[in-house]
Structure of Hypoxia up-regulated protein 1:
Amino acid sequence: MMINKKHRASSWWSLLVVVSLCIVLSTYICEVQAAAVMSVDLGSEWMKVGVVSPGVPMEIALNRESKRKTPATLAFRDEVRTFGEDALSVGIRDPSSAYGYLIDLLGKTIDNPIVDLYRKRFPYYEIIGDPERNTVIFKKNDKEQFLVEELVAQILMKAKEFAQESTHQPVTEAVLTVPGYFGQAEREALLAAAQLANIKVLQLINDYTAVALNYGVFHPSGINETAQYYIFYNMGASSTSAAVISYQLVKDKHTKESHPVVEVLGVGYDRTLGGLEIQLRLRDYLADEFNAMRKTSTDVKTSPRALAKLFKEAGRVKNVLSANMDHYAQIENVLEDQDFKLQISREKLEELCADLWPRIIKPLEQALAHSGLSLNIISQVIIFGGSTRVPKVQETIKQFIKEDLGKSLNADEAAAIGAVYKAADLATGFKVKKFIVKDAAVLPIHVAFERETGNGAEIKHVKRVLFGLMNSYPQKKVITFNKHTSDFKFHVCYGDLTHLSSEERLFVGATNISLVELEKIKDLLEKMSNESVEAKGIKAYFALDDSGIFRCTGVEYVYDKQKIEEDEGTLAKLGNTISKLFSKDSKEEEKKAEDFKEEVGEDEKIKEEKSEEKVNMENEDKQNKTTAEKNLDEKENNKKNETVKIVTIKEPVQHKVTFQFTPPLTGKSYELSLEKLNAINKAETMRSRLESSFNALESHIIDIQQKLEEKEYASCVTSEEKQKILSECSAISDWLYDDSDKTTHDMYETKLNDLKTLTNVFMARHWEHEERPEAVKALENMIDGAQQFLENAKNLTKDANPERDVFTQIEIDTLSRIIDDTVTWKNAEVEAQNKLQRHEKVRLTVKDITDHMGSLDREVKYMVNKIKIWKPKPKPTTKSDKKTNKRNEEMETDETGSGFGNETQSDDDLSSQQSPDEDIKVNSTEQSTTTPRTEL
């Protein structure tokens, strides 16, 4: 019994150790794997970056100018790449070198109407088609050409830089927002751009879904078991969308826990209605007014630079008119040194965009129609997006809903914050409140295939809906093909698009998504024809994942087959039962199980022996049976021990999937793009290092020249040294400003190091003279403290106080000697140093002072530590005391709880145990970090 207890105890200890190690290891793994993640709300005009890192809440990353949003524009001029505001400045001087409003060009072929609209809006770009993929290429010259994916990838790289600078950690994972109307081609193109930027995309999330998630997370009080309905209205730079969203607490069937669910029920959009269109209307108006003034004979619209200036001013005036009734548009040197100034009223702007205002409510109507809900059950219409600040936009929406608008969200940052919450949910190392998100398919998807009807009839064209309009996703679907006996193929296409306008259907582009070709079907069916199988058909599996990406995940031939299994014997059944009932974790339980098996085995053996005797007797009585009857009995007995089971078997079907939408950037094209971007990044890194090293050398030269003009620095250098330093600065300065293309960052850094070696001599002297007074003062304070300590310590020796003999006389003498030596050294060195000129070699350095402070500090700390551990010696006990103690011990043993063992001490005993350090004041020496002496 004792052995079993010990074994059980050891087992529990082993389990406890393992669990503890697992907890520690899991904690360590979480800390190691926890890394910062980001979100990028990449709009047409602006880019916002959200970040979250361990221990730091969600926030917006600032750019180099400490702003929370950055223009989604980059420029190339004179082999220099710039981003953001700098790129916009380049775009004024050379419009064709700055690239913006790129998001809508992703995944578009050169013949898409969106590309024609882009050319019309920005006529100064030369746009050509990719010879392989027929996608958009910006051609600057014969050497510089950029795919849209390459330009977007470089913007994402800059977003990654902002995130890393904000979190001070490497960032590799992100959630990216996309417009909800993006199809498969656009989403694949954005994923390719992110891959070029070396960003792992955790998910693509629709912008309105990200905002709805943001609202639900930060306004959880209104979410309960009853569904609440909201509309999120977004007008950005280039598009407008509206989404009907529901919030509800839903109980999980398995865990029985309730979690909030945000679900998209209906979506409406207009991909060409936004702030950009308003700005372009105003730009064209300003251009017409300038031409009407006839200040030049040249049409201002034919000048790219003038058009870019007008576009920038139109954007500024549009923003001002959102808060004011009128404002002046004013531009210097629009064209041919002619200035331009014009007063514009908000009324005039609204007149210019008169045909746009009715389009504002159409996305709202579409979203309500697709959701099947009426406006009267919508709790609130919440607006976001920069262009919703236009007064006419808000006024039009309010007239439609007849209620006030919800403005509780940050119009610019709501999507970025919602997306970064999703990133924290998906990334490793973060724990966030579970919030289930169900998005909706804006473009329905169906499968189309041909089927033979037999008897020479015509081939039947069949369509099957996979994901209908507003079907929720992520979701998986299966289609079964029952009547195909040979190789066939099926198309995956966008479904019924009649709910879209004719113009929007053209914007969608190619409606074919993929072609799936199934091969060797006949061979597979013939292989199974000889077996007793029941065919269930060919099943194709499809998925629409969290990012809205559609995939055919596999094709299988499924059939049921009969499988005959023999019944297990009695011993086998008992063995299986025992193995299920008893665990192998305990050796004791294993032993019991083995004993039980052995006992059962003996009983079975006895039964078998008796059975054999009985069979022998029966055989003697039935010798007249025929051989046929015996065989029949054997077959019947075998059938009783056999069980027929139906097993479902899935055989993979060989198939080939071909994308039929705009081909994504893959293969050799991707490798070439990656090589191009790596070369651009490398050149920029080298140029940045060259500029930094140049600026560092230039700044050091100017700094040294200025310091040598100041009295306090000039007094620390001899005339020969000063002449040599100034001469060297002049020579390097001449070389520095010599226009040479052969200079490298290594050359600048070498010159800087040589110059620092020369100038550090007098800079070190100046530093010594500036820091020495404080160091000497600190040493004097330490000496004063040590002397006070010494005076108190002299009272804790055997001669001065026999009952409190903390220190020996040797220790007292040692400390006294060190104090005296330090004082003598300090006085002598200070006097000697004061006789020297500031430009002469320093005699008393700060290091010398700190060394002596360290020696004194160690000795004092040694004595302080000795006080802390000192205890008074026990008093010798007499024989009567021993008898009294013995009697008290006996009484305590006999009468437990009597309280005899809690005698009070006399005043003499208390005073004798008083700590000696109560009488000693320890000054600043205890605050030093110098290691104390360890010998006691």
Observations:
- The radius of gyration is 44 Å.
- The mean pLDDT is 83.
- The first strand starts at residue 37 and ends at 42.
